[in-house]
């Protein structure tokens, strides 16, 4: 009988870790896709209930950016500190936009229907079937809350969550055991893995504490920022 070597324990563990990293990254991208779709659905539904195309368009553009904040088509790579500052800017923008639009929904209330038909007939769009107006402002509270929550999670997934860091943090041995959390979690082949854990308040203040006050911006940082903003405000790149 001929024995076929299958590799050392170290090489097997290394390959398992590689697969685990790959699975975590795949699941992260899948989650981003799910929340990206949810955001588009809720933004569209709210538009059908408040008939404000301007708010719809601004929210849509913001959600496009949050879903893919640092695309591979950028003219240059974005340094870590610039990414942190941009992430903080995204969060501030998200807060301002959602708070402002929520206040507008509360102030303006339910739009009037056309010709007393009890149905909306669109603003800049034509609704063939017609949309029944909301019964009260609580509908706007509900959908504004959903949109803000989905966009916050999207920001966390696309800008904060690093699945590699997650694995490194889990490399310690579990108390009272000879196994690490990575070994218990899976080897990447089973599909059983933890992508990340979201603590909203901790993530929020972590982002808000991002600061570059102790560092003077260089010409390279300014050029990177200008290239990024010019690229992101190019509508053809957002579609």
Describe this structure in words.
With 239 residues, the protein is mainly alpha-helical. It has one domain. Helix content is 62%, strand content 0%. Helix 1 runs antiparallel to helix 2, helix 1 (9-50) runs antiparallel to helix 4 (138-160) and helix 3 runs antiparallel to helix 4. The longest helix has 42 residues, at 9-50. It is elongated and about 80 Å long. Keywords: Membrane, Transmembrane, Transmembrane helix. It comes from Cyberlindnera jadinii (strain ATCC 18201 / CBS 1600 / BCRC 20928 / JCM 3617 / NBRC 0987 / NRRL Y-1542) (Torula yeast). One of its GO terms (cellular component) is endoplasmic reticulum.
Strand-helix topology:
Blueprint: H1 9-50, H2 53-67, H3 80-108, H4 138-160, H5 163-169, H6 181-185, H7 200-208, H8 219-232, H9 235-238
Helix pairs in contact: 1-2, 1-4, 2-3, 3-4
For this entry, give a set of tags:
mainly alpha
Query: Total number of β-strand segments?
Result: 0
Q: Summarize the biggest pleated sheet.
A: none
Order of helices and strands: HHHHHHHHH
Q: Using only CA atoms, what is the Rg? A: 23 Å
Mean pLDDT, to the nearest integer, reads 76
Q: Quick one: overall form?
A: elongated
Helix content: 55-70%
Pfam family, one: DUF1746
GO cellular component, one term: Dsc E3 ubiquitin ligase complex
GO biological process, one term: SREBP signaling pathway
Transmembrane segments: 27-47
């Amino acid at each position: 009988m001929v024995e076929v070597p299958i590799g050392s324990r170290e090489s097997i563990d290394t390959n398992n870790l590689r697969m685990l990293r790959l699975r975590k990254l795949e699941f992260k991208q899948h989650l981003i896709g799910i929340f990206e779709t949810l955001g588009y659905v809720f933004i569209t539904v709210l538009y059908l209930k408040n008939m404000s195309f301007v708010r719809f368009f601004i929210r849509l553009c913001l959600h496009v950016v949050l879903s893919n904040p640092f695309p591979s088509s950028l003219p240059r790579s974005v340094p870590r500190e610039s990414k942190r500052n941009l992430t903080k800017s995204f969060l501030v923008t998200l807060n301002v936009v959602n708070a402002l639009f929520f206040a507008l929904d509360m102030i303006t209330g339910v739009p009037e229907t056309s010709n007393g038909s009890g149905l909306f007939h669109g603003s800049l769009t034509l609704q063939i079937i017609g949309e029944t107006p909301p019964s009260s402002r609580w509908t706007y509270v509900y959908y504004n809350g959903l949109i803000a929550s989905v966009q916050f999670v999207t920001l966390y997934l696309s800008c904060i969550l690093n699945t590699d860091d997650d694995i490194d943090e889990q490399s310690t041995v579990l108390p009272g055991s000879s196994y690490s959390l990575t070994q218990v979690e899976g080897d990447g082949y089973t599909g059983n893995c933890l992508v990340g854990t979201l603590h909203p308040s901790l993530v929020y203040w972590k982002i808000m504490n991002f600061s570059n006050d102790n560092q003077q911006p260089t010409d390279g940082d300014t050029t990177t920022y200008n290239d990024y903003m010019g690229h992101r405000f190019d509508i053809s790149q957002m579609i």
